[in-house]
Write a structure and sequence with these properties.
Blueprint (H helix, E strand, L loop, with lengths): L13 H10 L6 H7 L5 H15 L3 E4 L2 E4 L6 E10 L2 E6 L13 E3 L13 E9 L2 E10 L6 E7 L5 E5 L8 E5 L8 E6 L8 E8 L6 H9 L8 H11 L9 E2 L6 E4 L8 E7 L5 E8 L1 H4 L5 H9 L3 E2 L4 E2 L4 H7 L7 E11 L5 E12 L2 E4 H10 L4 H20 L9 E5 L5 E6 L4 H23 L6 E3 L5 H12 L13 H9 L4 H14 L4 E3 L23 H13 L19 H5 L2 H30 L6 E10 L2 E6 L5 E5 L8 E4 L4 E4 L5 E3 L3 E10 L4 E6 L21 E3 L17
Parallel strand pairs: 5-7, 10-12, 13-20, 14-21
Antiparallel strand pairs: 1-2, 3-4, 3-6, 4-5, 6-7, 8-9, 8-11, 9-10, 11-12, 15-16, 16-19, 17-18, 19-20, 22-23, 24-25, 26-27, 26-32, 27-28, 29-30, 29-34, 30-31, 32-33
């Protein structure tokens, strides 16, 4: 039997120690326990013996640096990540078999660095500690995933053996299927490893159906990128309750008399912004940007809020939307529909004749949208002189904002955007480049003005701000750009202040369209990726010192956080009368104390959504082109690597590879600095931005991969519409001869 020595004076009791371990905000070790109970000298020696006895008795586990109650999580154990919350991985014990029905404990994995490098489903060996706020774990080693889910299409070879063909263009090899699980050839399936080694193959865990069926491409992206797409019943129930909240008209500014309008894409699934403007009689304008008051319905701490944080943003596919909020809110109650009273957060602005926003304020309002107009229809009315006063006033106010925009001189890179149009059966009706209209610029400039006003208003109130940050190019990227421009005999002085206008002037000075395309691609590559954060670093691309996202809280959690900060800053709180819904709509204490964690999480979610949307568009484009294999297209080089070229079809935006092996019988070397492939014998030069006529050789809808070959595929080389420079004598040589495809490895499309 374990010994139970007499309690010494001054020492805490066993129960007191257990209570302290359970309530401590930090891991409780011998030092923390001694400090908490004021122990000194010999008392610390006695404490050490007491803790050893408690461990022998099965009351605690751990070592002198941290203890936890016995019967919970082992000191070192294998954990499985189940989700990412606020950029931090949440895990549970991989093998949880308690004596009762107690659910497994949730542990926060404290990884080194910023944000989580782990993904749901991954396993780690970790050291665990218990604190008052729950369990935490420190990863020691990443383990092979026992159930690493993968997507693929079932193929059956001549011997009847099953193979899993990947749907990711970066994966080249099929995997043997050990257990078909009832799946048939041609079906899209989920699978996981069947054993510890690759030789064990995989086993099918779920059959998802026809991979080429309508809606399948977005389903592939959802599973591949781990996008949460199913709402829990608890979240749906809270959403239904929130949708019934009364508008509290007596506590809102009534703007229903204003002829406010929403201008949106013709296929918009929700409408979260509307605008109004009129002349102020002094050469300027009064304007209102009304945004759906999502913070009134989605309050911190509830199930709706937790799910929205996890999703970070809505994800838009050609055939579906994965919303950040349940449909009862995103597509109904929060959506600013024409002719219906809606709760909104309004930014009231005064715009000078020169386009400067000279004053602003924010209030909770009730609006009734006069009309929802498609961009194309708004533009048609303006061009035809058929616009009503409210639309004409918007254009006049925009002309003033445009002046201020021109004075700022933000980065002007007009990049094509692909648009996939589906018919009523979900089949592709058309793929085209989206036309850029003044109507788009009108809405964009009003939204930018409101976003700037929100950031500055919160700064004035000394309130927390989630900024939208776009930092200037790094010196490393500027050096690379400088070296690249030198190949065109153009200079970039690194000693000067780098501004967006510098790049704009550089592009205006380029007369040759092919050369301009090259330099525009290089400037784009030099830019950093925008992100969210609580510490302002400005927005380089927009040439703005303070910028925050305020205008899309239906689909972006960052905007919801800005709305909550405005609720606090302007005293706009409206407690929910229903006890089933969290009462307050401002920032939570947790977010107010540390916005960094949630900012990192929603930045990561945004990158995930962009990748999923891009992958889906790629698959639709490949499906559209699969019936046109063999046709010749006008293309432009968008990437140059030692193994070949990446080219884009100018009319569609479809990207594909031109392997170096098909460029001709001569050898080519890769000039990384100049971003070119150059023929050893002929000096033929393939550079970023060059226009080519290429034949489509392959189009794989499952992976979204395209492959091109020369227009004259019988031999010879492609004649690019770019420059021919003198032959260089050194470089990274590669064989370009036919019949040697084994030397070429497809490394994935250049982004």
């Amino acid at each position: 039997m374990p010994r139970t020595p007499k309690q010494q004076p001054g020492l805490p009791s066993r129960q007191q120690i257990l209570d302290f371990i359970a309530s401590s905000a930090e891991p409780a070790g011998k030092r923390e326990i001694a400090r908490a109970f004021g122990l000194k000298g010999n008392e610390k020696i006695a404490l050490k013996a007491l803790l050893r006895d408690m461990a022998d008795e099965g009351l605690i586990d751990g070592n002198r640096s941290a203890f936890h109650r016995m019967g919970g999580v082992p000191r070192v154990t294998v954990l499985r990540v189940i989700e990412i919350e606020d950029g931090e991985a949440i895990a549970i014990p991989d093998s949880w078999q308690p004596d009762d029905a107690t659910p497994p404990p949730r542990l926060r994995l404290r990884e080194k660095g910023r944000g989580s490098a782990l993904r749901p489903g991954e396993r780690v060996l970790a050291r665990t500690e218990e604190a008052g706020s729950g369990w935490i774990a420190h990863p020691m080693k990443k383990l092979p995933t026992a159930a690493d889910q993968m997507l693929g299409v079932v193929e059956i070879d001549g011997s009847g053996k099953g193979w899993l063909a990947p749907v990711d263009k970066r994966e080249r090899n099929s995997m043997p299927i050990a257990d078909l699980g009832g799946a048939e050839a041609g079906q899209l399936v989920m699978a996981e490893p069947a054993g510890r080694t690759p030789r064990s193959g995989v086993k099918v865990t779920a059959v998802l159906g026809d991979p080429l069926a309508p809606r399948a491409f977005s389903l592939i992206a959802i599973h591949k990128h781990g996008i949460p797409h199913v709402f829990a019943s608890e979240t749906l129930e809270e959403g239904a309750l929130a949708a019934k909240l009364p508008l509290a008209e007596d506590r809102r500014e009534d703007l229903r008399h204003l002829p406010i309008i929403a201008i949106d894409p013709s296929d918009a699934r929700d409408h979260d912004d509307a605008i109004w403007a009129e002349p102020d009689g002094e050469g300027g304008f009064r304007a209102v940007v009304a945004i759906a008051d999502v913070s009134f319905y989605v309050r911190p701490g509830g199930s709706l809020d937790r799910e929205a944080r996890k999703r970070g943003n809505s994800v838009y596919f050609p055939d579906r939307v994965v919303p950040m909020l349940p449909e009862v809110l995103s597509a109904d109650v929060c959506s600013l529909r024409a002719g219906e009273s809606r709760a909104a957060m309004a930014c009231h602005m005064t715009i000078s004749a020169s386009g400067k926003v000279t004053s602003w304020r924010f209030s909770r309002v009730i609006v009734q949208i006069q009309e929802v107009i498609a961009y194309e229809e708004a533009q048609r009315r303006i061009d035809a002189g058929e616009a009503a006063d409210n639309l004409t006033n918007l254009w006049s106010a925009w002309r003033a904002l445009e002046k201020a925009r021109d004075d700022r001189d933000p980065l002007a890179l007009e990049l094509p955007e692909r648009r996939v149009v589906l018919d009523s059966h979900g089949k592709i009706a058309e793929i085209a480049l989206r036309e850029r209209l003044d109507a788009h610029r009108v809405v964009e400039d009003f939204m930018i003005a409101a976003n700037v006003a929100a950031a500055k208003a919160l700064e004035e109130k000394v309130s927390p701000v989630v900024y939208r940050i776009h930092e200037p190019p790094s010196r490393e990227k500027l050096v690379a750009l400088k070296d690249y421009l030198s190949t065109f005999d153009r200079k970039l002085a690194l000693g000067q202040v780098i501004t967006p206008g510098l790049f704009n002037r550089m592009l205006k000075d380029v007369a040759d369209e092919s050369e301009k395309a090259l330099i525009m691609e290089a400037v784009l590559r030099s830019q950093t990726q925008a992100y969210y954060g609580p510490r302002n670093a400005g927005h380089f691309g927009l040439a703005l010192g303070s910028y925050a996202h305020f205008t899309s809280p239906i689909r972006r959690y960052a905007d919801l956080l800005v709305h909550r900060a405005l609720v606090d800053a302007y005293g706009l709180e409206q407690p929910a009368p229903n006890g089933a819904i969290p009462p307050f709509s401002g920032l939570s204490d947790r977010d107010r104390a540390d916005l960094s964690r949630v900012s990192e999480a929603i930045s990561a979610a945004e990158r995930r959504a962009m990748e999923a949307e891009r992958d889906t568009i790629d698959r639709y484009v490949a499906a559209w082109l699969s019936a046109r294999v063999g046709e010749v297209f006008e293309c432009r080089i968008t990437g140059v690597q030692r193994f070949g070229l990446f080219a884009t079809i100018l009319s569609l935006g479809g990207d594909g590879l031109v392997p170096v092996s098909v460029l001709g019988a001569e050898r080519f070397f890769h000039d990384e600095k100049a971003q070119v492939l150059e023929g050893e014998q002929t000096g033929t030069r393939y550079a970023l931005g060059d226009r080519l006529r290429l034949r489509l050789a392959e189009a794989n809808p499952l992976t979204g991969a395209l492959k091109f070959e020369p227009e004259e595929s019988a031999g010879g080389h492609i004649e690019p519409r770019g420059r021919r420079l003198p032959l260089k004598k050194k470089g990274d040589h590669l064989a370009g001869r036919r019949g040697r495809p084994g030397n070429i490895r497809h490394q994935g499309r250049r982004r």
